[in-house]
Amino acid sequence: MTARMKNPAMVLPDAMKGIQHLLGAVRQGGVSQELLELVHLRASQINGCSTCVYGGVASAKKAGLSDDRLHMVAAWQEAPFFSDAERAALALTEAATRLADHSGKAVPDEIWDAAADHFDEKELAAIILMVATTNLFNRLNTTVEEPAGTTWG
C-alpha cells in the first residue's frame, strides 16, 4: 500500500517544525514518557490510525512499557495493569478524542475532575497537548493513507 500523497506535514516544512516544537513542549510538562505513550497509543487506536498504532507500540516499548500493559491499552478499563492516574489520563484521552460522541460537555466533569485529582496544571497541559497532537497525526495519516511502518523526517 502506498500513500495517496506525501504527508502534508512533510509537504509544508514549517508544519513539521511546528509539530516538533509542540512535542518538545509536551515533553517539558513533567509527565512520564510511558504515560505520554499510553495516551498516544489509545487515541491512535480510537482513530484507527495504523501508522500511529504501529509507531506508538515501538515508542512505548522504548519508553519501557511492559508487554502486558501494551497489549491491554485497548481494554484499559477492564485490565489490572494501570494505575488510577493512568486510568484518569486514558479516560481524558478518550473523551478528548471522541468529542462528538458526548451529549452536553465534550469532556464530562467527572472525567476532568478525576484527571485533575492526579495531575497539576502543567501535567494536564502536556496530556491535553499530547492528545491533540496525536489526533492531528491520526487525521493526517488516515487522510493520505500513510502506510504503517512509515517514518517521517
Structure description:
The chain is mainly α and 153 residues long. The protein has helices spanning 8-11, 13-27, 33-47, 50-62, 67-71, 84-97, 109-118, 121-144. It is globular. The model has no long low-confidence stretch (mean pLDDT 94).
Question: Care to give the gist of this entry?
Answer:
The protein has 153 residues and is mostly helical. The protein is built from eight helices and no strands.
Q: Largest sheet at a glance?
A: none
Termini separation comes to: 20 Å
Helix content: 55-70%
Unreliable segments of 5+ consecutive residues: none
Q: What is the mean pLDDT? A: 94
Strand-pairing-aware structural class: mainly alpha
Oligomerization: single chain
The portion of residues forming beta strands comes to under 5%
Sequence of secondary-structure elements: HHHHHHHH
Task: State the helix count.
Answer: 8
The global form is: globular
Calculate Rg over CA atoms.
15 Å
The number of strands is 0
Search tags:
single chain; 153 residues; mainly alpha; 8 helices; 65% helix; globular
How would the blueprint of this fold be written?
Layout: H1 8-11, H2 13-27, H3 33-47, H4 50-62, H5 67-71, H6 84-97, H7 109-118, H8 121-144
